[in-house]
Amino acid sequence: MSQIDHSHRADASTWVDGADHHPDFPVQNLPLGVFAPASGAARIGTAIGDYILDLSAMAAQGHLPQAVAPALRRPTLNPLFALPASARRGLRHALFERLTGEDGYALLHPHLHRAAHCAMHLPFQVGDYTDFYTGIHHAANIGRQFRPDNPLLPNYKHIPIAYHGRASSLRVSGEPLFRPRGQIKPAADDAPRYEPCRPLDYELELGIWIAGENPRGAPVPVGDAADRIGGYCLLNDWSARDIQAWEYQPLGPFMAKNFLTSLSPWVVTQEAMAPFRLPQRARAAGDPAILPHLLHERDQAGGALAITLEAGLRTAAMRAARQPAHRLSEVGADHMYWTPAQMIAHHTSNGCNLRPGDLLGTGTISGPDRTGFGSLMEIATGGATPITLPNGEVRAFLEDGDEIIFRAKAEKPGYRSIGFGICTGVVTAAMP
Ligand code: MN
Asked: How confident is the model at residue 102 (pLDDT cuts 50, 70, 90)?
């Protein structure tokens, strides 16, 4: 597991204007991403305050460690995350030194771009995407709506439940969401129809980016699995609840989810997250014991994440009136019933190979009460308890023109908090 070192010191300061007080990107964060400046091709960068530092250009001029320079040539992070974690730690330390040392300014300042003038791209070419279901309060809330007497299925506390998602429709934050059409069968009707989704929803999740590769047939031991985490992002698993209700048995989500998944562009690295670890929450009395291949002392002691996620809603009317987003919920990522290391250990436990740039979703993260629910399906109880927004508008699910905005921060006493940037998307009219 990644160690705390001098690059996490709360009193570290950079010469980059405003970065020391930036809510997301102080010098302790140094997230990695792919960006394109106003005039120029896509390349690799790191966010520092309101700026992006061009790492591809720095590498080309010989200003970054030889261990990582060749991996920074192409506009995707896959080659860098195929390297051992020690190479990325070396890159972090080199950047930290230059950004905190006075002599860094002359060297780096030609490679700084104002983030507001840049376009962000997906950070990886994603080969495979898997969405888990580790938010136990979410699983219970949704299960209760479908099966009031039996909300959690018997396997839930034994295995980290997941399904294979769709990589082709992963998009970076800002991509508009066409309201999908699909096959829908209301309970009162005899036959399904093909029409636009009505109960359109979001799901508040973290994305976990995979580093390195295990050969097929070689499971990753749970005690080693933290080393396979490259970093984290925000993930919105947009969901069409009426399509889902009709299609989900017996094989799980398919067309209800695969039309778009939105991701925040910055990879908050496993190295940056070193201080922001928590013990995994104790299981409730009566919960089954964890099987040995998913249980490791170090993972139980520090495998959970000290991240707070927030979802906000801004309707078209709120934007027109220049009103800020309304906070729908706020939740701690430590409400996940399984740790990221357990997800990786389980995913590879049958010999499945995970590759650099593969993406895992945690599943919707919900807290124990409504203030922390991670989807409208839960907040508005499937439409039974709609919410009233500050301007009087009422919502049970998403209407055209609505924008969903995710943010998150990692916090721990004694450390400078770091953030994830933004994951946003506006619902537009039904697909043509
Ligand atoms: Mn999901």
From this structure: confident
